[in-house]
Fold this sequence. Notes:
By secondary structure, the protein is mainly α. Helix 4 (69-84) packs antiparallel against helix 5 (89-109). The N and C termini lie far apart (93 Å). The protein is built from 5 helices and no strands.
Amino acid sequence: MDKESKNEYEVNERIQYTDPISEMVKRAEREGQFENLPGKGKPLKLKGDNFSQEQQLYKTMKDNHVLPKWIELANEIDVLKEELAILHVEERKAKIKLTNKKIKQYNRLCPPSLQRNKIHE
């Protein structure tokens, strides 16, 4: 067999793979299904030159409903501290231990200027 007869039956097509999920997302974006999501397309409101990049990052994250873990821990710590005021001695010790554990995690994650002190009995 010569080379030409072999190529007669071969098709030189490139198969193009398209990801079905990506296609659905692109189609939904074109149709405008993502327009009403919180944070989508909001313009950045800068407070001037004294607004640091870190502050802008946290503001943008907050506007888009994405908060760093240390902010979530701070909220949990505040709730635990409020609960400490009404507890009895034995329950209080366990709650203080849990609070101090969360404070330790918080101090590892947050900026140095926002670190908290442990609670003593």
